[in-house]
Amino acid sequence: MDRLMEESIASDFEDMVRLAASKMAAKNVQEENIKYAIRLRNHGGRTNNGDGGLSSVKGSDNTIFTFSTCSLSFNGTTLTRGQIPIILYYSNPLEYGRAATTKLEQQARNTALSMTSAIIEKTSNLMVIAREKADDVPSADILSKSCIVTTLLPLVLAHISPLATSDSKSAVHILNLIQELLPHVAALNLMSQSVSLNNKSLISVSSCSNQDIIEYKADTTSHHYTLVESDHPYKPSTVSNYRVLFPESVKWMSLDFDSACATVQPEDLLQLFVPALKQTDRKHFSCLDDGETPLPYWPVLHKFSGSLQWPTSSVILPGNEVIFSLETASDYLKDERQSAYGFKCLVIGYEWPPESNGSVNLELKHLEAELSFLDEADIDTEMAENTASDIFMRHGPLLSKGLALSSPPTVHQALDGMLPYR
């Protein structure tokens, strides 16, 4: 399909340039899959068309203009006789690319939510049946050891949590799913707890002739914590080791680094170490060569340096011991603008209930804790508060008298922007 765009400029060269510039004020939107014939007519003793035109010209954004001989030319102008001297254009490929990316992201969200909805719906139906059969069979014990509770649901909840915290519509949908599943999980835990108390099936720990009864709870609190930090500022040309050792009852640790952690030079590094496996633990992992001495500690994670390489979220490490090794070089940069804060880290140790027949339904209790955590993450409105505060600061006078609504909007109406105006 051809379209003709014609502009006639009759005057000397200076007037032609001025008039051509004025024509640029009215934009001409080009459509796809359409071939345009541009005819430029100029009159005067001077022209700027030149000779030996190119058949194709590439713009700065990789847009390619292809020129060919047109039968609409009055005097048979061809590429060898010259072509249009200047083309002023703009394009928005980034906007189109962003729109396509947004559409793909929305499709991915819908697919993930659809799969999650199907899994949680089937799980809810299964737990309803388990509650109904609780008097006849130990349904809570059976469910607690099933793959749907030990593997499938934890993986689904772990992978769906970033979606819940990044997209408000998805967060509302996931909240509804949690509201559907959480009551059944909590009810099964309460039923199993009451049965265990009636049967006196608490965990017993024997020590010599004395017997202490300890009831372990699957909570996320801990009495084991310490704060590890270097000198502020840290000393150059030194190696400083900081060892954290918790009791044997601690099975895993979480490390939270302060946001001020920084080093001046790339050679100033912090490395974390955990104890190597004991000889009894390494009997199935004999990867060492004959005569090779095993390392007492293993390095974990990468080395931290600068101000941007430090973890921004909690780091989980197994065991009850960790070593912080800060190695610093001589201060050859002498850059006072860089921070020589060093590091500061809060280490929390968590106990784990011992494996015993008395530990009933730990998997269901962990599932309840995971659902509660995801529920709290969904209702965190910090991002929404920042957006609302920014809008109010910019358009406060427009919203000072409120909105003329016929009824309070629902959550979905507010998210979609379809408010019930009068």
TrEMBL record:
- Please give a single GO biological process term from the UniProt record: axon guidance
What GO cellular-component annotations does this UniProt entry give? nucleus; plasma membrane
**Could you tell me which residue ranges the PHR domain spans?**
31-90
**Top-level lineage group:** Eukaryota
GO MF annotation list? ubiquitin protein ligase activity
Question: What is this protein's record name?
Answer: PHR domain-containing protein
Which species is the source of this protein? Phaedon cochleariae (Mustard beetle)
